[in-house]
Design goal:
Layout (H helix, E strand, L loop, with lengths): L4 H11 L8 E3 L1 H7 L2 E6 L9 H10 L3 H6 L1 E4 L3 H13 L3 E5 L5 H9 L3 E4 L4 H15 L2 E2 L6 H17 L5 E5 L4 H13 L4 E7 L4 H7 L21 H10 L2 E5 L1 H14 L10 H8 L1 H4 L3 E6 L6 H14 L3 E9 L4 H11 L3 E8 L9 E9 L3 H13 L4 E4 L4
Parallel strand pairs: 2-10, 3-4, 3-6, 4-5, 7-8, 7-10, 8-9
Antiparallel strand pairs: 1-2, 11-13, 11-14, 12-13
Helix pairs in contact: 1-3, 1-8, 3-5, 3-8, 5-6, 8-9, 9-11, 12-13, 12-15
């Protein structure tokens, strides 16, 4: 079973008037950093914060009056749940969403706030899916799969129509890959409209399930990733065959690169995205020579990031840029010594955030002490200058916890 350009154009007609066309914007700042001409598709601006609304709405609008009255069921722990819940409620369709038992309460609460009934079951999404199918069979509900459904794929493919309408001369599209619905739809439309366009998929390094499946190797996925939206262990059967035909390459990105992409998008472009949403830009950052000089489009497919994770990423970004550092300084354990160092650092332009004064648990002489100073600085050069001044003044010092 597959889809074609006509299916995607039919989906676009079904969505028209019910779903806002998200902007495709050029990014001069990111383009300057990467050496290519970057265009960002802002799918993070949908009402529920992700592209999943497209496929969900296309599927829901295909239901017969009898199917709509009976209701639908889906399994998801994130964006698909919210997209289905929001549009089902808006269309007056009873919706049940099965989520794994350990789904964070905030995601459960948000899905319920859109009007769906949430059922918690199982340890994994696979457990939730099996349970959801059982309810669907028992109660005569229509199952709305997050990616392995032609109508879902066609709905996601409308993104390519909008991108190529906005920027017809794109050379390459860089698209996140989880179960494959997003890239399958985009690749189908883009290759039909512009056969020579390159389609590059992006998976998290810890969850390379689609790449491994297409290569015919055992799927090995594990670990905690900040790109949980594409952390899929079982890619779609329909999607994998479409990807096999239309996608030119699938690349993997590390957790560090995903962090850098999220940090750069918020600090340089003022856009908040989740890990999966930043995966396309992460791939561009990771392999800049591949895209240099080309017209590149990428999809920021979601913006639903946990506030604590975002705060941590931003702070780690400051450490990478050496705008927040920790120095370990040795000084005489005598009255006034700490005050002299604090004054010295202030005169050098550093803003002290925290000081840890350690006498007992370091391998230092009994009449000496180590202090760890957490400090705001301007950049790498400023930190190097402060260290040089400390050494010249007779204070042994070293930079701790540096991130390359």
């Amino acid at each position: 079973m597959t889809i074609g350009l006509d299916d995607i154009r039919s989906a676009a007609a079904a969505l028209a008037g019910d779903l806002t066309v998200t902007p495709t914007i050029p990014s001069p700042r990111l383009s300057e950093q990467t050496g290519c001409r970057i265009h960002l598709k802002l799918e993070c601006l949908h009402h529920t914060g992700s592209f999943k609304e497209r496929g969900a709405l296309n599927k829901l609008k295909s239901l017969t009056p009898a199917e709509a009255a009976q209701g639908i069921i889906a399994m998801s722990a994130g964006n698909h749940a919210q997209g289905v819940a929001y549009h089902a409620t808006r269309l007056g369709i009873p919706a049940t969403i099965v989520m794994p038992a350990q789904t964070p309460f905030t995601k459960v609460e948000r899905t319920e706030s859109y009007g769906a009934k949430v059922v918690l079951h199982g340890e994994t999404l696979s457990d939730a899916e099996t349970f959801a199918h059982g309810i669907a069979d028992r109660d005569g509900l229509t199952f709305v799969h997050p990616y392995d459904d032609p109508l879902i794929i066609a709905g996601q493919g409308t993104i390519a129509l909008e991108m190529l309408d906005a920027v017809p001369d794109l050379d390459v599209l860089v698209v996140p890959v989880g179960g494959g619905g997003l890239i399958a739809g985009i690749a189908t439309a883009a290759k039909a409209i512009k056969p020579d366009i390159e389609i590059v998929g992006v998976e998290a390094e810890l969850y390379p399930s689609m790449k491994q499946t297409l290569a015919g190797t055992p799927v090995a996925c594990a670990g905690a990733t900040i790109a949980e939206g594409i952390a899929v262990k079982s890619p779609g059967h329909i999607t994998r065959e479409i990807i096999r035909v239309h996608v030119d390459d699938i690349v993997l990105v590390s957790e560090e690169c995903l962090e850098r992409a999220i940090d750069t998008l918020i600090t340089e472009q003022k856009l908040v995205v989740e890990g999966a949403g930043a995966a396309g830009f992460a791939a561009i950052l990771a392999d800049q020579p591949r895209f240099r000089g080309r017209n590149v489009g990428t999809v920021l497919c979601g913006g639903n990031i946990d506030a604590r994770i975002l705060a941590s990423i931003l702070m780690r970004g400051l450490v990478r840029q050496r705008r927040m550092v920790r120095l370990r300084i040795a000084l005489t354990d005598a009255p006034g010594a700490l005050a002299k160092v604090a004054q010295f650092l202030g005169e050098a332009g550093g803003n002290i955030v925290e000081i840890y004064h350690r006498r007992l648990f370091h391998n230092v002489p009994v009449k000496m002490a180590d202090i760890d100073v957490v400090m705001e600085t301007r950049d790498h050069g400023h930190v190097d200058a402060i260290l040089a001044k400390l050494h010249a003044a007779g204070y042994p010092a070293e930079l701790m916890d540096d991130v390359s």
